[in-house]
Amino acid sequence: MSNIYITGLGIISAIGDNCAQNLDSLKKSKSGIKAIKFLQTIHKNDFVSGEIPYSNKELANIAGIEDFTKHSRTSLLATIAAKEAFKHANIDINDGLRTGMVSASSVGGMDVTEDYYLSEASKENTNYIFTHNANNHVEVICDMLDINDFSATISTACSSSANAIMNGARLIKTGRLDRVIVGGTDAMSRFTLNGFNTLMILDKNLCTPFDENRKGLNLGEGAAYLVIESEEAVIKSNKKVYAKVLGYANANDAYHQTASSEEGYGATLAMKQAIESANISPNDISYINVHGTGTPNNDDSEGNALKNIYGDNVPPFSSTKAFTGHTLGAAGAIEAVFSVLAINENLIYPNLNLKNNIKKFKFKPVTQLLENQKVDIVLSNSFGFGGNNSTLIIGKIK
Amino acid sequence: MEELIQKLKIQVIEQLNLEDIEPSDIEENDPLFGEGLGLDSIDALELIVLMEKEYGIKIQDAEKRRQIFTSIKAMAEYIHENKK
Amino acid sequence: MEVYINGISAISPQKTYDNSLFLDEITEYSGDFLKVFKPNYKEFIKPNLLRRMSGIIRMGVVSARMAMQEANVENPDAIIVGTGLGCMTDTEKFLSSLINNKETFLTPTSFIQSTHNTVGAQIAVMISCNNYNMTYVNQNIAFETSLLDALMMFEEGKLENVLVGGLDEIISEIYELKKSINAWKTEPATISNLLSSKTRGCIAGEGSTFTVLSSNKTEQTYAKFIDVFTIYKATEDSLKAKLFQFLEKNNLTINDIDVIVTGNNGDYESDEMYNVFTESYFPKSTQVVYKHLIGEHGSASAFGYWLAAKILKTQTIPEIVNYRKKETKKIKNILVYNFDSYFKNNYSFVLLQEA
């Protein structure tokens, strides 16, 4: 069982432009969810979101991209996070190691497409046709960072980037690559905001994950990447390592297109199989970063899944979606980055906005930041539409 | 009311894309969800849009939803009472 | 560890869903783009589910079921799907509704059905499959990336069957958009003259190909799936190096390839590239083509895979696809080679072998 080391992190979300800023906000219990400012929507005043407080032009500046009009917001976010991870991992792309990229997005460049499609402007400007696809950002980044041994793009809704991390790890374990930049990205769009609104699962106010009276989720946006490397690669380049990918699994609820089964069957399977793949027991988990979107359905289903595995004695757990909003395709990777930070900083994050625990569960999430914690192993859940349930297990370097 | 019920049947068939179903196949008192027409939660959301778009009626409450959508007759009665 | 192709089903613009036939009846082009020759979807999907399904979901679900039926598999260990553009009908429907109705009176069905992993998810629900379920969306190598994922699964553990699929749909709105960026042929073409065209552009098509890969050989077995390779960018030299590496890794030389299946699609620049590649490295192999029958789309190369599997099983090559005939006694190894003709990127090799 070869080790998969995490050697670099990059992230941009509503709570920070990079790792340090995200960590700072997490430590200060400072949520990034507020009124919508940049997205042009008639629902501007109806919902709050984890929108990143920069225009596309400002994002392009941060990304080091000259012409912001040639890129989707999704791609700009991805570029920022990928560059940070790449730099953090100190990658020399010409060192002979086989390097790939596996990324994910749920709606790709839809943020641009929806501005141009059917509009007068589209007669002059057809660039959106090229930026639309979910894998466009992968090409942009591979071109920029000169990654060309392998690339792939996954799209499985809200579990997308967790799956990208899993896929990257497997490519290393099966001997095809030495290191992979893995993660995902999604920007706010009218398409997703309205889409989720038709499902009536948005909370008009700050979301309350795992609360008895929760109303729904807040949408967010962001991107996050991790650089993962094989043991040999790490030794060869004498790399600093931050954590290990210990295990992972993907299972399907096979219940409904958008809703999760009440008993959390798929979620239970994903968690169980991930724990098994890591060769640990459920009680070895120090902290669980739950999917915890704050919808009545998810938190109920996920809660039942936790109960299926732990009974009433669930390890410390929290949802960080009240910090960032639900970042869809980026969620798995953003939360993986948070997991690595938790391990290295000895933190367990608070589950914000909780007023009343879910009555039927005897366990409850952590509601205050816990410091100086022994966080050895973190389990992170990401559950997407189509019953796509993924779990990652990340562990401390010992 | 009869006219409304007939109209509603056609609108429901169209909104939910019930390709092989004729208005005469739907009994006004038959359950819409579970058995009868066998509609599901996605259909419920579609019907909510139908109510707002065609009749100006906004349905926010989940509990209310269950009562209103029990049958075509129930829907017609609710529309009759609340139409704007 | 051997991986066998035990079931395969292609729904395409030709009558290919019936596996007892092998391109016996050919349908000429009509209209701007090629839509699939449909089986009777009602035989496979209950009305309650069918009513919500757009074209791509219908063809995906049905070709998946057909492949599973053929392989006698009810619950695969994994469902892995590749799609270039995903569920376009529903994406376009929700998007245009959003724009035209200015974000009011929007309905959920098309939003839900627009997510890229809808087909994989729908299959899982219909057969109650709780196993691994993945969807790749990296354009015209999404299907090949799915094959790679499946191959890794076999390498990793004791599984029996994996369902893999590649599918894409064409709708008039997408046709028009791509027309505006000169993707398509502007002059009319026919099946017999498309591949001798001297202009750029190809013909738009759609289709769904699903296959069941197994660790066990059976009477159904079509062929062995040996290996797959994908790369985003390549020069002529780097591609040559990758080709040789790929063959060497699988203990083969260029002389061992009996048939090469290439993605010639009528775009004369790319077709030239395919032909030069074939002439240079496979001068003794038979060259087989297929996109003149099914058009071009993000998952067209999955049809190339179908063709290769059928050729290996029947040991025959239908005239209509036999582009450059060479003397071949027994067909043992087939290489399927494809790349994106518009961008000249996303190259793939798939290697199949007689079982």
Structural topology:
The complex is a heterotrimer of chains A (398), B (84) and C (355).
Chain A: E1 4-12, H1 19-27, E2 34-35, E3 48-49, H2 56-63, H3 73-88, E4 99-104, H4 110-116, H5 127-131, H6 136-145, E5 150-154, H7 160-173, E6 179-186, H8 190-198, E7 222-230, H9 231-237, E8 243-252, H10 265-277, E9 287-289, H11 296-310, E10 317-318, H12 321-324, H13 331-345, E11 377-384, E12 388-395
Chain B: H1 2-15, H2 41-55, H3 62-68, H4 72-82
Chain C: E1 4-11, H1 47-50, H2 55-71, E2 78-82, H3 88-100, H4 108-114, H5 118-127, E3 132-136, H6 142-156, E4 161-168, H7 172-180, E5 207-214, E6 223-231, H8 236-249, E7 259-262, H9 268-281, E8 286-289, H10 291-294, H11 300-314, E9 322-324, E10 333-340, E11 345-353
Parallel strand pairs in C: 2-3, 2-4, 7-8, 7-10
Antiparallel strand pairs in C: 1-5, 1-6, 4-5, 6-11, 8-9, 10-11
Q: Can you describe this structure in just a few lines?
A:
The complex is a heterotrimer of chains A (398), B (84) and C (355). With 84 residues, chain B is mainly alpha-helical. Chain B has 4 helices and no strands.
CATH class of the largest domain in chain C: Alpha Beta
C-alpha end-to-end distance of chain C: 13 Å
How far apart are the termini of chain A?
16 Å
The order of strands across the largest sheet of chain A is: 5-4-6-7-1-8-12-11-9-10
CATH architecture label of the largest domain in chain C: 3-Layer(aba) Sandwich
Poorly predicted runs of 5 or more residues of chain A: none
Biggest pleated sheet of chain A: 10 strands, mixed
Portion in helices of chain A:
25-40%
Number of structural units classed as domains of chain C: 2
Number of domains of chain A: 2
Strand content of chain C: 15-25%
In order across it, which strands form the biggest sheet of chain C? 3-2-4-5-1-6-11-10-7-8-9
**Mean pLDDT rating of chain C:** 96
Approximate helicity band of chain C = 25-40%
Instruction: Provide the CATH superfamily of the largest domain in chain C.
Output: Thiolase/Chalcone synthase
Q: What's the shape of chain C?
A: globular
What oligomeric state best describes the polypeptide chains here? heterotrimer
Largest beta-sheet details of chain C:
11 strands, mixed
Structure description:
The complex is a heterotrimer of chains A (398), B (84) and C (355). Chain A is α/β, with parallel strands linked by helices and 398 residues long. Chain A is globular, with a radius of gyration of 19 Å. Chain A has two domains: 4-237, Peroxisomal Thiolase, Chain A, domain 1 (3-Layer(aba) Sandwich); 247-395, Peroxisomal Thiolase, Chain A, domain 1 (3-Layer(aba) Sandwich). Chain A contains 13 helices and twelve strands. In chain A, helix 3 (73-88) runs parallel beside helix 6 (136-145) and helix 7 crosses helix 13. Chain B has a single domain (2-82), classed as ACP-like (Non-ribosomal Peptide Synthetase Peptidyl Carrier Protein, Chain A). The radius of gyration of chain B is 12 Å and the shape is globular. Chain C folds into two domains: 4-214, Thiolase/Chalcone synthase (Peroxisomal Thiolase, Chain A, domain 1, 3-Layer(aba) Sandwich), CATH 3.40.47; 223-353, Thiolase/Chalcone synthase (Peroxisomal Thiolase, Chain A, domain 1), CATH 3.40.47.10. Chain C has eleven helices and eleven strands. The chains are: A alpha/beta (398), B mainly alpha (84), C alpha/beta (355). The interface between A and C is large, with 59 and 57 residues.
